[in-house]
Amino acid sequence: MRPYRRIAVALVIALVGATACSSGSGDDAKSLTLYSGQHQATTARLVAAFERQTGIHVKVHSDDESVLANDIAASGSKRSADVFIAENTPALRLLEIKHLLASVPATTMAKVDPRWRSAAGDWVGVSARVGVMDYNTDMLTEADVPTSASDLASPEWKGKIGIAPGDTDFQSVVASYLRTHGEERTLEWLAGIKANAGSYVYSDNMVLADAINRGQVELGLVHHYTWFRERAKVGASHMRSAIAFLQPLDAGYLLDISGAAVVRSSHAPAAAQKLVAFLVSRAGARIIASSRSYEYPLGSNVKAAKGLPEFNGLSPIPLSFNDLGDGSQTVELLRNAGLL
Length: 340
Fold this sequence. Notes:
Distance between the termini: 71 Å
Number of helices: 13
Order of helices and strands: HEHEHEHHEHHHEHEEHHEHH
Oligomer: single chain
């Protein structure tokens, strides 16, 4: 080979190598940024286990999932997060529509039932929870508890219910109601709920669950894990509330999915894919099952903790993730109803 050709080849190799190193896209990447809208204590346990297994450091940035999703969307091709864990699917759907998520390998997707992952292949379900009625047992019996989300707008519940319209879990139920009953009936339902709740409007479902347990309000529509977290917080002997399931296929009987994705602009995509794969691995799913998030793990056929209702015995409304949308229409309806 002539000298000048050897020099040219060497320069090309050097440039390619420099690009690979600066992007951190190979398996040798040693750090990641995780945007997480999920339970912080459980996320910390998952991250610690992943770091021990791989030697890859994970910097966790926790916030409301809508804030995180909008930050990723605003960043565009600039690096913000490498991995995004959303508490609910609309935040993932928002980024999916904008083509800001990378494809998840088939080997990772295969660890989760097709019902609980993106049909487009760019995010995978990690854990799940289901909508229930939480009620104060000193004020109501289970027979008194309404079996449909629609009943909460009935005049008989005026001054007796609490709501947390800013909580994304509640917003997912609104999206379910919208898909099931249409916009006009959903607005009527929200107006009835607003009138019945009066001043009993709370910042999130955990605060609502605490208010129900203390007897400030009689009941509210939450997700099952809020009740279990309340019990863990105050102790079983101090519980004055219980949960009741809605009638099968009711709009409020929604199975909500938390999912994970690799952000397309990640500078360390191989390492990011490792983290997503870990979340749905047997090791990751077992951490979720044993955590105080009290959710159903979706990966690797790992069963939930004892004491939770049997996952396969649930009868939620069969809505697709596309049915729930990207959250924008739900937020608009809540604003029109004066709840946001």
